[in-house]
Specification:
homotetramer, mainly alpha, Tetracycline Repressor, domain 2, DNA-binding
DNA sequence: CATGAATGAGGCTTCATTCAT
DNA sequence: CATGAATGAAGCCTCATTCAT
């Protein structure tokens, strides 16, 4: 049963496994984005791949697990980007611009062409999402430094910033073609200077 | 059919009907807010009342119908409030303050005690929601008047304002006790002057 | 509570009761004929009257009972007719003609305008139907007298005759306007002389 | 995926599938014959097999579909038999004998042991049944040739013949053991020469 | 590991029947 | 007796998950 091509075979196997896993994840991401968790059936997901229904369970223990994996995956892909921007940025404007560009590009890559966008989940539904929220809060407080009043409500500040990013991101995805850089410029202005200022510029 | 208490009888019946209808609506509102449309089963809803499963269908034709009724109901309760604020308000600040206070009080009344808040639905999932979006956009453009640049992206502006309201509202609901007026003051400042200014004040 | 018009009142009540009972029976007959027993709901029946759903149960103990009542009713209306024809008839041809005319007129009165006709029930599903079957068998053997061979299969003979009547009756109901007398003439010829003979005449 | 028993494996699977499908069909046929379409629940059907409720839907999309499949199946098994008899037969008697024997044997195979027989559906409830009706009508007119009067009512003739076959078939199924050949001989005589002649012979 | 049929819990909904008024 | 809302069993069907091959 073991031949001289074992290594190659094992390699091919590993490749196939990785390919299958990615295929399932991609199909699930699309499906969840378009229809929401409950409306998606495991069969919807595997029907979008060339695999059989049972195979799903060789890669994920349950439908819930793939959803969590997906959310964690998104958050984990997003966090390094945000961290990198935080590291590079010298001031609030630079950081906001970098982070929002990163986020909007991420949205386009992840959900571009989708009718929907990322599921609008409660802000802290998963640990990964909570982590992102905290990450942003810390970056924000760090950069603001002593321009942050002692009693300032950083949770509200963070929520406001995230709200702007989320909703403008959703609008952006609905346009053809989506323009992440333009959206980021707009969001930066809105966050930094407020709505009247943002309205004054084309 | 001919007792002297006919009126009272009919009245009691009508009262019971109205009470049951409200009980079902309230249970559904809670359930949808906490778990989302798909995750809620009709049995979840009626189990939260003291009625029997079949009774649900004496009041709503389907699970979908009650969801629509709920969304329409919320939007229809919200729109007059927003309109009234628009009529009263002379400038942007007054309008924002009134509208946000109205919205946050509405949230507390509607979802106070709930773990969650209103479902984060896509911004224009239902006609009623679209209508609210447009209502806000129009108020915004109307009040800004010629302080709105010709090419300004009013959809982004509206989305940003709604995003702030939604996410700060969600944060507010999570606090005990929720403070809608405080949240409104904060949101007004954030929207009007931007994040750095909002951060500078306790 | 008792007035001088008690008799009149009682009379009106009895009238109303009879009217209601007939209304329910008529609605049920139509419904069963058009949709079949199981497909008809009690609400279908009472919706076709101006009564309330609970009222149904003041007149019939259950849906099954009204179906039985209906079948019994039909059989009981049919049997006297058949008996009368038997009494009048001097020979087979006269009896067949009378009985078939009676049956086909009965069908038109009972189911005319209906899309369907009487439910095609098993020949002996109810006692009343069994009784009709036996009634016909006895008339047949009585009239045939010694023209009936000793070992003749009277069940088959009866079944054949009934089969002809049922299926030609069904065809007749489908025509506009239905012609019960013509159908009876045709069926008599077919039963008496067989198909080739019946085919030879227009 | 690569064992030497692949063919056998696939074969066994296919066999199981076919067996299950047949088991479901058989159970449904019995149930529909005994209780009629509406009175039969999908659970009745699968309870008569050793399968689980959900399995039904691996084979048929709905209860309606299996009913249609059953009717179509019966008609499709019957029509070739009737056609073959039509091709062989030189005269009316031969054709009637062949067709009725074929039909009665079909009944015994299909519904033998059943308390009931085929559901007495309206003569043309399904396309397949309409097709059988027309098939018989055409054979009849073809064989009668110019022994058919110009204005003869071929629909009535066909209905009469089918009525005889249906009701005598029902009687036959009720006997133990059923005698399809005897029933066919009887029915031929009745159809060809009429009731008095049929009565004269044992 | 892949396959895909089998499983059975559970979802939505209908409906015969009861009962307070 | 009439009314019509309440009841809960039962129907059809979907789906996450298991398992033999």
């Amino acid at each position: 049963m073991s031949s001289s091509s074992d290594v190659t075979e094992a390699g091919r196997r590993a490749q196939t496994k990785a390919r299958n896993r990615e295929a399932i994840l991609a199909a699930a991401r699309r499906a969840f984005a378009e229809q929401g968790y409950e409306a998606v059936s495991v069969r919807d997901i595997i029907r979008a791949t060339d695999l059989a229904s049972g195979t799903f369970y060789n890669y994920f223990r349950s439908k819930e697990e793939i959803a969590r994996a997906l959310a964690a995956d998104a958050a984990q892909r997003l966090r390094p980007l945000l961290r990198a921007e935080r590291a590079k940025a010298m001031d609030l404007e630079a950081w906001l611009g970098g982070a929002l560009r990163a986020y909007f590009h991420f949205l386009v890559e992840e959900y571009g062409g989708t009718a929907a966008g990322p599921p609008h989940v409660r802000m802290d539904a998963t640990p990964a999402q909570r982590a992102v929220f905290e990450e942003i809060r810390e970056s924000l407080t760090g950069i603001l430094g002593d321009r942050l009043a002692p009693g300032a409500d950083t949770a509200y500040l963070t929520a406001g910033a995230i709200g702007i990013a989320r909703y403008i991101g959703e609008q952006m995805l609905r346009r053809a073609p989506p323009d992440p850089d333009g959206a980021a410029r707009f969001a930066v202005r809105l966050i930094l200077h407020g709505l009247p200022t943002a309205a004054r510029e084309g």
